[in-house]
């Protein structure tokens, strides 16, 4: 290809030319102002070729991909207790068994996903793994489950983070929703800036949180054993039992606590973002994350049981625990701040995962193709924006209340866990005997089985509380994904032309195809359009709609005197319609000309200032819109620009 | 002109043809549904030629044009008392003198306007009369004063009507604003249906109101004289005096009472709607209206003073007066209902006047030309809709409270009275001595003088309370009217071509003007656009924006194989912009081709269902919008319609 520059005119037929552009500059003041704002918020655009260079170390990756999982320590134990206290103080005997069961489940899931990471070094999200092994329908179930849960993760994490703030500073309580939405917008902007910078932003709070929780738990156990600080008693009385201590209640508490596992799959999705050797680094990070999460969760659960903490409306359990162990000391504020920070940023995991999943789905034509487009900083802007919008809506609808959101949460995660692990199990099974690894197959099988059972428990116990919403939503989403795919397939089938077909197409065009010029009065724009029409065709009809009889006669007289060598049709419209009669006439002319392509030429005048368009009937626009649905009619706007 | 039918092809050059249409039928389901709703609400469209046939008898015209004026009896006395009671019970001595002064003023105004009716049988609104005699600037002051007052009339009348309802049925009080807005919408629909039917609708409540008030006043005076019914005492105590009984307070009370005169000019505006002999019928109706209004106003004022009624928050004065005279009897409910009905319908006077004034202004190019267009039933739909919208906004802002609106009211009316009467005086003065009528000149001069003095009093006494808003608004409106006129004059000057100029224009066109086809991929719409381009020009450049390097190479290969005999320019856009680089390239090509008209041809595919457009990047639309501001670039959309 020959490279051409500004102003070069490509001349030789059949050749192709290259022309490379720099970022363009908007020409209006408003456009430039908007661009400046965008530059400040998001940064300078990156070239497409710079995409591959952003990779994370294990320490960074742990922060980026695990903030969601780790941060659930901040609310998981509280959600267990919230259910158990319905049965009164006797229920406290079950806190620790439930905690251990969840920790064991975590172990199984981590080891299952460890195998996924090795099997899919290019990124093993549930959608990809399920599509690869179980086929289209299960993969769409996995995808839609995950999408709902990503949105919920943002809403839940942000709401919990705001709860940490309002626990410490009670004056901020009325502004919970506003703070939450602001946080979502800030995280959205950070993600539009790109991944590497997010890595840097997220490392600090994640490690501060882990550090703070570690000290809190050590001090808590020391107090338990009578060493060091004497615990401060918190005097909350357990409310009277309203429910019997049934198996159902215990399972419901367990199901609520399973929120602790959300986000565990993030590392397996994000393998390509690791430094080489990707899969090994990712597997190590995954195990490290499992250990940290398990210890923190068990620590908080044991201490909450020991100190007999009671969940209350206006203060989080972590806040209570910290006050019991260290009092309202500076360290208390440090823990609250770190908790708030990691929770607000935990949402970031979803901001990494949702747009990527949407990209995969859009690439497979299950979602609008806008989700495949990369923004200035190479992030999938559409996915990022849609996630921010939907999660903000959830936060507003549920008033930034974690306990109201929890019944909807974790349903999707466990469905996708189950599908992902079942896919891995089947993958081992399909392999020829030489490569089949029975231990690995057992691990994934156990993972699939346990997460499947847990999914059933979660759905059954949370059904009335809100899980039904998700169960209605999932088929709705799947039907839409399939509908979009069907549409794109239809379109592709209708638009496709092989090179063979292009080469062999019949050449039937003539230089005098039927052309209509519609005009309002005989002024400069109209004459320009008439002259233009004569450059494109020799078969021209000029039409004019007359609303009153006088108008018709006046136009006819002028036309006769103007001496233009074209036929004029005056459409008399006694009911003062303009569009309808014009469209009807054009349709009839099109039919009687034999139905080839008819060109409608519209003079259009462009005022000097945008606000002046309201001072004119935009008949040309409305006519173009009306003709849009008419096959075989090409519409040409011939603009006439006013200078003042 | 030869009449042609559907499908006839006009063939002979230079001829003009007639083609007459019936009302068209929308082709989509939604379009047809909307049309059915419109038919039910507004009725079948009328032909333009049916316009002149709707004329009113004197009895009908009194109802249509006087409901505004007559209905002000319902609140004018109350507004006088509201001011006077600020000075305590001593102020009651001034009620009757103020009432008589206002009645005298009414007499002067009626006789002044009687002369306007005879002088302007084609309709003598203040704008027309002032323009005719004093010139542009005074006429625009009259017009803008009237427009603000028409809007206020709707807001005040509707609010007062709703007050009559909420006085009788206290349960409806919280819904005052909702009831008021609903009433405005219903009146709007009635007006969109057309004048004749409004005449029928409005006659009944107007005469019921006059009848009810007449009986009430007769019974009231009978009670006063000790005949018939014994009045029921209403025990409202006069609140302690907060203001001294100053001249300013008395003038303020007078100014508030002048609201009684609003609407008196309506008949002079509406002379053309009367049956022949128009001016005589109109003059008689005007005098009749003055007599009825004067008697009712004085009756209510005398009785209110006699029974020492005190204005209160939740009940209107008329409601109190009726309860005093007849108790809470069925007749009480009849009077309340008739009052509510006439007030709600009084707004109709403005719905007749505002759109007509806007039409006159738009015809003179001081307002957007949409105000000249007549709707299905020949009403000026834009004016009707704008009045409904702005008055609803006022009702909402002022919470449907009459006393809050009154300080803004009547300012405009008296400014326009003054200008109109001054114009009439000057008109007599200008006449040659033979035709000059000194008595008539004296009457109009007296009218101008008194209304001028009253205008000053109103502005001075209501200034702080709200009249300042009107005084700021009027110059703002006038500046805008002038700006719109300047714009239309500018446009006309730029677009105008004489027949001479058309005949003698240089014919410079060539059949091979520069043409660009922009395409996304080599599919059916693109090939259709390329083939279409070859019907209109022999100088074609095809352009394609490649976002990634691979895309560029793939396109180049396909192009080479497709064997299309046209040059292809591939614009490489490393920053993934599409629009900017394309526009830049087109601009450069346009410049290097010498700047004649360049045609940009855009393949555009039209999905089978409207909601599917969200599944595609509407690059064609966005490109067309971006090119709209580029002089000399014609844009052609070549549609490709999907079937499913």
Brief summary:
The model of chain A has no long low-confidence stretch (mean pLDDT 86).
Describe the overall structure.
2 copies of one chain form a homodimer. Chain A has 644 residues and is α/β, with parallel strands linked by helices. The first copy, chain A, contains 22 helices and 7 strands. Chain A has helices spanning 29-42, 58-71, 76-84, 95-119, 126-133, 136-168, 176-193, 195-224, 247-257, 266-269, 278-306, 317-326, 330-363, 381-397, 402-405, 411-430, 438-495, 499-503, 524-536, 549-562, 579-592, 619-627; strands at residues 2-3, 16-20, 515-518, 540-546, 568-572, 598-606, 633-641. In chain A, the strands form 2 sheets. Chain A has a 5-stranded parallel beta sheet with strand order 5-4-3-6-7, sandwiched between helices. Chain A has a two-stranded parallel sheet with strand order 1-2. In chain A, helix 6 (136-168) packs antiparallel against helix 13. The longest helix of chain A has 58 residues, at 438-495. The radius of gyration of chain A is 33 Å and the shape is elongated. The two termini of chain A are 44 Å apart. The model of chain A has no long low-confidence stretch (mean pLDDT 86). Chains A and B meet through strand 2, helix 17, helix 18, helix 19 and helix 20 of A and strand 2, helix 17, helix 18, helix 19 and helix 20 of B.
Largest interface: A-B, 125 and 127 residues
Q: Encode the helix/strand succession of chain A as letters.
A: EEHHHHHHHHHHHHHHHHHHEHEHEHEHE
Gross geometry of chain A: elongated
**Low-pLDDT segments of chain A:** none
Spatial strand arrangement across the major sheet of chain A: 5-4-3-6-7
The assigned structural class of chain A equals alpha/beta
**Distance linking N and C termini of chain A:** 44 Å
Largest sheet of chain A: 5 strands, parallel
Q: Strand portion of chain A, in percent?
A: 5-15%
**Radius of gyration of chain A, Cα only, in angstroms?**
33 Å
